[in-house]
Amino acid sequence: MARIFGVVSQKGGVGKTSLVQNLGAELALAGRRVLQVDLDPQSNLTVGWGIDPVEERLTVYDALENPQQTANTIIGLRDNLDLIPADLDLAAAELAYINAIDRNHKLKKALTPVADYYDIIMIDAPPSLGFFTVNSLAAASDILIPLQVHPYAYKAINQLFIIIDQVREINPDLNLFGLILTMWDQRNSLTGAIEQEARRRFEDLVFSNVIPINVRIPEATLEGLSVGEYESSSSGAKAYKALAQEMIHYGA
Amino acid sequence: MARIFGVVSQKGGVGKTSLVQNLGAELALAGRRVLQVDLDPQSNLTVGWGIDPVEERLTVYDALENPQQTANTIIGLRDNLDLIPADLDLAAAELAYINAIDRNHKLKKALTPVADYYDIIMIDAPPSLGFFTVNSLAAASDILIPLQVHPYAYKAINQLFIIIDQVREINPDLNLFGLILTMWDQRNSLTGAIEQEARRRFEDLVFSNVIPINVRIPEATLEGLSVGEYESSSSGAKAYKALAQEMIHYGA
Ligand SMILES: Nc1ncnc2c1ncn2[C@@H]1O[C@H](COP(=O)(O)OP(=O)(O)OP(=O)(O)O)[C@@H](O)[C@H]1O
Ligand SMILES: Nc1ncnc2c1ncn2[C@@H]1O[C@H](COP(=O)(O)OP(=O)(O)OP(=O)(O)O)[C@@H](O)[C@H]1O
Ligand SMILES: [Mg+2]
Ligand SMILES: [Mg+2]
């Protein structure tokens, strides 16, 4: 049975999509069978892999609608690495299921038919605490929180923890796997201050490896590649690779 | 009658809140009577001004509920500069008004009683194209789009333009005032590529002044200050001041 990671933060632009794409790619290179799920109508993860969300294809919305279809939505990206893409139509799901009894379990049901084919499933979600993030957390076994070393992102953690506790009412075994410091910039004092505060408060929940600010990360998305494929010697690529090893060390 | 600017982008972390706070502060210093509205449940604009959203007070939600209350929600920040704060309870508004006939006009109605006291109103909204962004656009006379010089943010423009066109059905005079390049970093090639593409496509809708990457911007929020107050000699502070002058030159 796959370990399912919900990558969540309601703060925008903290590196959720980048984490799913690049950490997932490194875990696949390390031999884990990985499925990435784009649960954001913005479809950045889909775009990041060079797939045009405008083209007609089955998407995660089709899987939510009919779990029997899930296998047909899967795109093979690389060895050991698959994707369930999204498109803008996914935005309609939030209201479509407003009165559905199983509203919060749509994704869990969609993933059940395929979960056994994978070791790791990673779910990208939009910057909000609504339907998509709740579905991700309800489907997940584990949570990964990218924590940008900025004040607003740090302050967002309290509210996120409240939502996580609420979701534990329907998913009691939901485990916080860890926090990953992102957009880390040793040149500025803010990085140090936020890192120190985060490690003091969350202790060993914060991974040792941080993701530094590195322009190769957004550049790689223009090519539809992971940053490791785009430039393996870059600080960003090395960081995700090291993080993957740390994740594996802790049981991923 | 105030000119009402909706500052919008569904891409997260592109500098919406920073733009409202800092550009608004500079416009107030230049003598414009400015009201800032925090229409994001995350309340980052409120926090950025050093106001604790947890404390009991009237917020923008009270103004949405009862426009007669709007004046009572206003906090005086500085000379010529006021704020309507938010708190986390605002998240409930999206569903509370799901069947309201005037669902999209709640903010417009809330601002009408106070609009004449101001020259400029600036509205911060969350990273989505839902209720809050639509309300901002429906209340606005003008739109400002912060455009982070990254691929995902650039790709988000198409969808944003579609929503703007839709809102023009209920707000026909809605004017796109301009796009502001943010997190501009002359050290990396991506900045140049995205800037060139944006200026080619949107021409003089893109302001000449850009907002550079500058750590003083997030640092200032820790102190509840605008970046101009925090460190007026910083590149960030100078950029917002120059941008304010450019806005005034174009009629703000
Ligand atoms: N460590 C990094 N260094 C430099 N740029 C980065 C880094 N991580 C991510 N980025 C870039 O910053 C932007 C924001 O990252 P990303 O889109 O992954 O965040 P997100 O949390 O998924 O955003 P959203 O909230 O909009 O979904 C993207 O353009 C991405 O390529
Ligand atoms: N030019 C800049 N240089 C460095 N940091 C910046 C700059 N502009 C904004 N920031 C910081 O980057 C983060 C994202 O900016 P901000 O919160 O203003 O974006 P946003 O679009 O409002 O995000 P959200 O989508 O979450 O509402 C914040 O921590 C902010 O302080
Ligand atoms: Mg994302
Ligand atoms: Mg914001």
Quick overview of this protein structure:
Two copies of one chain form a homodimer. With 252 residues, chain A is α/β, with parallel strands linked by helices. Chain A is built from twelve helices and seven strands.
Write the layout of secondary structure elements.
2 copies of one chain form a homodimer.
Chain A: E1 3-7, H1 16-29, E2 34-38, H2 44-48, H3 60-65, H4 70-73, E3 75-78, E4 81-84, H5 93-96, H6 106-111, E5 120-124, H7 131-139, E6 142-148, H8 151-167, E7 175-182, H9 189-202, H10 216-223, H11 227-230, H12 235-249
Parallel strand pairs in A: 1-5, 1-6, 2-4, 2-5, 6-7
Antiparallel strand pairs in A: 3-4
Helix pairs in contact in A: 1-12
Residues 16-17, 40, 44, 124 of chain B line the site of one magnesium ion.
